Amino acid sequence: MMKDYSFFSYDANEALHMSDREKRIILGCLDEIRAELANNIDRHTKQILHNDRRRG
After folding, report:
1. Terminus of the chain with fewer CB atoms < 10 Å: N or C?
2. How many angstroms separate the CA atoms of 12 and 2, rounded?
3. How far is CA 36 from CA 2, 18, 39, 47, 53, in A?
């Protein structure tokens, strides 16, 4: 899939450098996702999550 994009000049197994700021942003997003999942989930969201797991 990545071979379809010419602007990727690195191998799929190479890591991209992330700045400390970018790491904080990503970790902050993950913390917010965890917090959302820990809260009571309404029935519509439960249905979406349940359906998504069955497709996986």
Report:
1. C
2. 8
3. 32, 25, 5, 16, 17
Q: Which two tokens stand for residue 8?
A: 């990727």
Q: Tens digits of per-residue pLDDT, 3-56? A: 676 666 667 677 777 899 999 999 999 999 888 888 877 888 888 877 766 665
Rounded to an integer, what distance in angstroms lies between the CA atom of residue 30 and that of residue 14? 23
Q: CB within 8 A of 49, min separation 6: which ones?
A: 41
Tokens 């913390």 — which residue? 31
DSSP string, the chain: -GGG-TT--S-TTSPPP--HHHHHHHHHHHHHHHHHHHSPPPHHHHHHHHHHHHH-
